[in-house]
Design goal:
six-stranded mixed beta sheet, globular, alpha/beta
């Protein structure tokens, strides 16, 4: 079992909050993490994937919740939204912390009927697929917080080896996919995973007229991962009305299969592109849908940026899920096509820009967009970082650095204070 870096945050939430919801895509390890609490904390475990439990929850939600007794884990709660109001009633009667640990494979923030019913009574945590650090059993420290303002020169990051990076990109972070012994077995798992999500979760959440349209849309979005989201263009290509397309897109967002990354904008007078970017956040699933294989990567001279940028997006999301600095993530693009891939921003408005390069070398031209950001936002700009598939941390200025992508799985040196702690 992998050690999940969000576990301390989960334990803290259960110590002072009546209801905690751990949500994320199917097969990210939510059930395993929840069940790890059962023995020491006497949590009873029930899953709504069990038809008997599901029937009880749906037929008599008030009686079902009233009969739960002590602390309980309820798995896959999105399958029975009827239980949320009875849980609210129970919590209003008895607000002891840690009464309900819920897990769900749908983002309740996009399901207002569920989210509103427990407002002020529930803490929501997100569990993404395994991070590079978790897979490497690297000690837990928040790499997003460190990128933002950590001591860069204090960490001797090892070289990013092309073969390791390629395998990381193709594998992704779903624990089952990581555990598969060969590319063929991994591909079989991704295929069955998509089928399971379509047959179960899509049907649970929406009345979809043509189930075959969803995988076709996912394929179209995979080809556009990392690009600006243009509903009109996707609508024409996919031969879907924009109303249907937006409904399906929201459904895929709700299931954590796609991510909409907002644009950064602060000054309305600036000529910024306001369209969000769209990503498939797991590089392994993206590679599977895009038909990128070990053989095709070996035949090429470099690594495809269409995989590397989504990989970084996924790693940032995994670390932002337990960020102490409460950072937000966006992208920056002007109408003259000056683009910074990612912007990390804290609550004081301080910014760190991140560019992603798939190449193993970097030069001054790769900092053009970061220098633009620095010049146009001098009061807010902290630093700019180019993540690349290279060997060294290199300073290009006092606040501009190139850094190997291996930082996502490299060990933190014992006793170091690289994040200021």
């Amino acid at each position: 079992m992998y050690s999940r870096h969000i576990f301390p945050l989960l334990a803290e939430a259960l110590a002072d909050t009546p209801v905690v919801l751990l949500n994320g895509a199917r097969q990210t390890g939510k059930s395993t993490l929840a069940q790890s609490l059962s023995a020491p904390n006497a949590y009873r475990y029930l899953t709504l994937d069990d038809q008997a439990v599901l029937a009880a929850a749906k037929n008599d939600p008030v009686g079902f919740v009233a009969g739960l007794g002590g602390p309980v884990v309820l798995d896959e709660v999105q399958r029975a939204p009827e239980i949320f109001l009875p849980i609210k009633t129970e919590v209003d009667r008895d607000r002891r912390p840690g009464r309900f640990l819920l897990t769900g494979s749908a983002n309740v923030l996009l399901l207002p009927r569920i989210a509103d019913s427990l407002a002020g009574r529930m803490e929501i945590l997100s569990l993404w697929p395994l991070s590079g650090a978790e897979m490497a059993n690297s000690p837990s420290f928040n790499r997003a917080d460190w990128l933002f303002d950590g001591e860069i020169q204090a960490w001797a990051i090892p070289a990013c080896e092309r073969r390791h990076l390629a395998m990381t990109l193709l594998t992704g972070g779903y624990p089952e996919a990581v555990g598969r012994s060969s590319p063929r077995r991994r591909a079989a798992w991704f295929e069955s995973y998509l089928q399971a999500v379509l047959q179960r979760d899509v049907r649970d959440l929406a009345n979809v007229e043509q189930l075959t349209e969803i995988p076709n849309l996912l394929q179209l979005l995979a080809a556009r991962s990392g690009g600006l989201l243009n509903f009109a263009e996707v609508s024409r290509t996919g031969r879907l009305s924009q109303t249907t397309l937006k409904r399906y897109f929201t459904l895929l967002e709700t299931l954590f299969l796609v991510v909409r990354l907002p644009s950064w904008e602060r000054n309305p007078g600036k000529r910024m592109v306001k369209a969000p970017k769209v990503f498939l956040p797991d590089s392994g699933l993206l590679a599977h849908l895009a038909g990128i294989t070990q053989d095709s990567l070996a035949a090429g001279s470099g690594l495809p940026g269409r995989l590397v940028e989504p990989y970084v997006l996924g790693e940032l999301l995994k670390h932002l899920a337990f960020s102490e600095k409460r950072l937000t993530l966006s992208h920056y693009r002007t109408q003259t096509n000056i683009e910074v891939d990612f912007i990390l921003e804290n609550r004081l408005g301080k910014l760190t820009g991140i560019e992603v390069k798939a190449s193993s070398s970097v030069d001054g031209k790769d900092f053009k967009a970061l220098r633009h950001l620095k010049e146009t936002e001098p009061q807010s700009f902290q630093r700019g970082i180019v993540l690349y598939a290279g060997r060294e941390v290199v300073a290009f200025d006092v606040d501009l650095f190139a850094m190997p992508l291996s930082m996502w799985w490299a060990d933190r040196p014992a006793g170091s204070r690289i994040d200021g702690k």
